[in-house]
Design goal:
By secondary structure, the protein is of the alpha/beta class. Helix content is about 45%, strand content about 15%. Strands 1, 2, 3, 4, 5, 6 and 12 form a seven-stranded mixed sheet that branches. Strands 7-8-9-10-11 form a five-stranded mixed sheet, with helices on one face.
Length: about 525
């Protein structure tokens, strides 16, 4: 590097650090919030991941300017609040479906929920602040690990909500996202945080760490490109999928006078002619607004729209002997017989059930029969006896069940041949939510080495190969079908065997290195 440029760079970093040191408390928090907001440009649908290499080092400067542990906590909290309030704004869109009943929840969904999630980031910043200020590299590593572990905790505690992890910034960078087949999305999140924070080393005129972060991503991308180039591109013989996207507005979906018309729309799309007739037709979540197993006439009509010798797989209501409803997925053969059923097990809090309902007099947004939905037994692999002998077993996932990396397949059952995700993103309209939902689902394919078929009411329906690439899709807000072959599964990935073990190993290794460095310094 040219000595003059090096000196100018060091001078600019020093001036920026001095400027941050002079911020008032109000200005400090305002800039921290803005940095968190700008960081969300890295997420879908924008996907400008390089922004993190500017905003995260700036967060580090702001954290270094914090004089107390309390100040460090609120620095991390405010950055996280900016991140979550901007990237999760679409949750509030669901309340506008019935605003007269749920208007009072808007402050909670728009601000209180992001504020709660930001606590994880605040605690991570507080932990990093314990490291002496002059130990910049150790503090960088500590902050990256603390944020990575905080995101893992956010994905598991209190039912978990691992949405918009920083690692998802690379979902549209196919070579980079391949590393999740080894370390999972939490591992990629940790590496992203570490690499993006590395330029903070310029504070102490250490340029090597900043370059090392870029080098790590270059190596990851080269390995991923090799994986993409040398991988298999087979399809399952005799299996042609049709994903039905009816594009029914949520405000009309459950109107009694609209039920027949909505059902008819699914039937017409399922029967739409095609040069290559489908063998498996997939309808989205709750496409059938009836208890399907109790409605033989409805099953007969669906059988009429089912390909000969094929299947119709649809989201529908189900009910047990105690008359409790379930958000379910059922597969029907061409005779109208139910050959497989799956009940959703990871229910949406305050949507499909209300936690601590005896203390909270609240009716969930998506409940039926005057109460919450029942919960299924957990992830499992379903087979389709008597239909399409070549159709592999599937791991069904209803709606946001697909966002939980460790729960997309049954760990005790046989390995499925594909992931089957049905969802109704009509609650969220034309917002970033459906784009983010698809991006998250694509990473599950890479992690498991399994193709994904995703049928969504209003979009985005898509067929995804086991490398996370979208082979066929229908845009958000359009009515139609997606016809595509089912890609073949890859051999089990390291992540499918070990889960988050490698993520924890990397975290522990970095923690050990940081502690060793501190001890040697002392």
């Amino acid at each position: 590097m040219d000595p003059r440029f090096r000196g100018e760079l060091n001078g600019r970093v020093a001036r920026l650090a001095a400027s941050v040191e002079s911020f008032s408390v109000r200005k400090h928090l305002a800039w921290t919030f803005l940095a968190g907001v700008l960081s969300t440009l890295a997420l879908p649908p924008v996907g400008f991941a390089p922004i993190l290499w500017l905003t995260l080092p700036f967060l580090f400067l702001l954290l270094s300017a914090a004089k107390t542990g309390r100040g460090a906590f609120f620095t991390g909290w405010m950055f996280g609040f900016g991140w979550f309030v901007t990237s999760l704004y679409w949750i509030s869109a669901s309340l506008f479906v019935d605003l007269a009943s749920f208007w009072w929840l808007l402050p909670f969904s728009a601000t209180a929920l992001p504020a709660c999630f930001a606590i994880y980031w605040g605690l991570a910043a507080r932990i990093a602040h314990v490291i002496p200020r002059e130990r910049v590299l150790t503090r960088v590593a500590t902050l990256a690990v603390a944020l990575g572990v905080a995101e893992w905790l956010r994905g598991h505690l209190f039912t978990g909500f691992p949405w918009n992890l920083p690692g998802y910034a690379f979902v549209d960078w196919p070579p980079v996202i391949q590393i999740t087949s080894v370390i999972g999305i939490y591992g990629l999140t940790l590496i992203t945080l570490l690499a993006a924070l590395a330029p903070a080393a310029l504070m102490v005129r250490r340029r090597a760490p900043a370059g090392l972060g870029i080098l790590v991503f270059a190596v990851i991308a080269l390995w991923g490109a090799h994986r993409l180039g040398s991988g298999q591109h087979d399809v399952v013989d005799g299996v042609r999928l049709r994903l039905v996207q009816p594009n029914i507005a949520q405000s009309l979906k459950w109107q009694p006078e609209q039920l027949r018309a909505n059902f008819q729309r699914h039937l017409e799309l399922a029967r739409e002619p095609s040069a290559q007739p489908p063998t498996v037709v997939i309808w989205p979540e709750t496409a059938v607004p009836f208890v399907l197993e109790e409605e033989p006439e409805v099953r007969d009509v669906m059988a009429w729209a089912t390909p000969p010798g094929g299947l119709t797989i649809s989201g529908a209501l189900a009910r047990d002997d105690q008359k409790r409803f379930y958000n379910s997925l059922l597969a029907l053969d061409a005779k109208g017989k139910v050959v497989a059923r799956f009940d959703k097990f990871h229910l949406v809090p305050f949507g499909e059930y209300v936690p601590l309902r005896r203390f909270i007099p609240f009716q969930g947004l998506a409940q039926v029969g005057g109460g919450g939905f029942g919960s299924g037994p957990g992830p499992r692999t379903i087979t389709f006896p008597g239909a399409l002998p070549g159709l592999p077993a599937a791991s069904p996932l209803i709606c946001y069940e697909v966002i939980f990396p460790e729960q997309v397949v049954d760990p005790t059952g046989p390995r499925p041949g594909w992931l089957l995700n049905v969802t109704n993103d009509g609650w969220f309209g034309h917002t970033a939510g459906p784009h983010q939902h698809l991006a998250i689902a694509r990473v599950r394919s890479v992690e498991q080495g399994l193709p994904l078929a995703r049928a969504a009411n209003t979009g985005i329906s898509a067929v995804v190969d086991p490398y996370g690439r979208v082979l066929a899709s229908l845009p958000l807000g359009e009515m139609g079908v997606v016809d595509a072959d089912l890609p073949a599964a890859l051999p089990p990935t390291l992540y499918s065997r070990w889960g988050d073990t490698i993520f924890w190993c990397i975290s522990l290794l970095l923690t050990a290195c940081s502690l060793t460095g501190l001890r040697n310094r002392r």
